[in-house]
Amino acid sequence: MKSNFSLSIGIVLVSFVFLSFKNDETKLETPQKPNIIYIMLDEVGYFEPSYMGNKNLLTPNIDKMAKEGMHFTNAYAGASVCAPTRVSLMTGKHMGHTSMRSNGGGAPIRLEEETVASILKKAGYATGGFGKWGCGNRGTSGVPEKHGFDQFYGYYDQVHAHSFYPEYLINNSKEIPLKGNVGKFYIGETHAQDEIFKEAVKFIKSNSENPFFCYLPFTPPHGLWGFSKDHPSYKLFADKDWNVGQYKLDDGIRYAAMLHMTDGQIGEIFKLLEDLEIDDNTIVFFSGDNGGADYFPSKENPRGLFGANVNPETGVEFRGRKGNVYEGGLKIPMVVRWPGKIKENTKNDLVWYFPDFMATASELAGVDVPEYCDGLSILPTLLGKKKQHKHDYLFWIAKNTHALRSGDWKAYATTLKNGEISWELYNLKRDPGETNNVALSKKRILSKLEIYMKEAYTKPIGGEIYDKDLFRKDHIINGSKPPRFRGN
To answer: Which residues contact 242 (CB under 8 A, 6 or more apart)?
Structure first.
């Protein structure tokens, strides 16, 4: 009897181990919490990185990242302009649910809203942000230190971020003076991006022994292109004979140089990860923040000198640009790298967008995805394991237009001045340039997407402003509003 009892126990144990192993096959293998870095360059268009075939711009480190990671062809921003897209990325909500949907400058998210940082902080991560916040000015409910960030250094207001030579930057709502800057938009002693990058490096070094989340919403190449002609990146393009139409030759050079400079800083981050021996346990995301702006159009290049929305190989153009919700306003470059985990030099056509980052970060950290999150984790796609869940739809808003993508179909509902709604419908697989509106001939498909649109939209409830004077201070740089962008 003793022998039979032992045999029975052994069978039970073996069965338990087998079932446990079988169940574990459906789980993603992330035994150690990885460091998470998200790099977002302001206004870099879909076709601007040189790994996309751009012949005028040079991004060797981003290109290297694409070769060592996964390059996505169907990644979308959360919105088509600065502040709302950042709110979508940080809160995990699409624009039908976000608390802030305008780009006026400084409007805050609500105090109780969770962000990627607050979720990761609860999971034991050190959290730092360096660059442009855009989710709430000082004196409001939306400041980053109230939303999970141990440190945020840079700009809180996007108008403040238009200058690369501001008199001060902000660290956890405190002003940090910049040496030699006296209020000139294009001239100064201390370039803001250099200081922001230095603080980011300090953060990574000081937290390298524990899990960290480093959010890098860098401002270049957007803004007023204040940049030294003595910088090596400027000299690299100084002899370019570019025809930039009504704009000064120098503006195109400055744009290209600032992108190249920031690409160099990205390379330094990867070198730092290797030196700290944490490269294999760090997943890095790279993207633009919204669609390209078609900078520097001319007769020869009507969509801009650098062709942010023009395929350099085929000539096919995305309709629209930054500020609207056609493909040109939302499609972004997106690369994710994680040595040993993500297969090198892979291209993926998964359709996903900014709300998915919160879901992905939550799964990386081993915590539940918040119920309110509109995103889906893309970790299965990144690791090549498990079935990837896909969205029924993606949703955006731009002024009086709602846009929704479902599968290969994308619909637009624009409210006209007389209150009527103008509908558009495109099949993106057959018509990536959105030139053939089939709303009248595909009414059944349009009706389904209309139902999704009604489901997606809720009335926004914004955050609070506690100190109006402090709220306004960063919105007016050095006592005056910045000049209109040369090239925008």
So the answer is: 56, 249, 252, 253, 296, 305
Do 194 and 215 sit in the same domain of this protein?
yes
Asked whether the whole model's pTM tops 0.90, one would answer: yes
Amino acid at 378: I
Residues paired with residue 127 on neighbouring β-strands, in sequence order: 213
Tokens of residue 106, six digits: 């400084």
Give the domain range for residue 185. Answer: 35-350+352-390+461-473
- Examine residue 484 and state whether it is found in any structural domain, yes or no: no
SS3 (DSSP) at 66:
helix
Residues 193-229 pLDDT 10s: 999 999 999 999 999 999 999 999 999 999 788 899 9
249-275 and 60-68 are packed helices; what angle lies between their axes, rounded to 10 degrees?
50
Kindly give the residue spans of alpha helices, DSSP state H, lying in 74-184. Answer: 82-91, 116-122
477 vs 114: CA distance, rounded Å: 30
Hey, what's the torsion of the CAs at 113, 114, 115, 118, to 10 degrees? 130
Instruction: For residue 191, give the DSSP letter.
Output: -
pLDDT digits over 385-400, tens only?
A: 879 999 999 999 999 9
Decide: 331 and 85 in contact? Cβ < 8 Å. no
CATH of the domain at 437: 3.30.1120.10
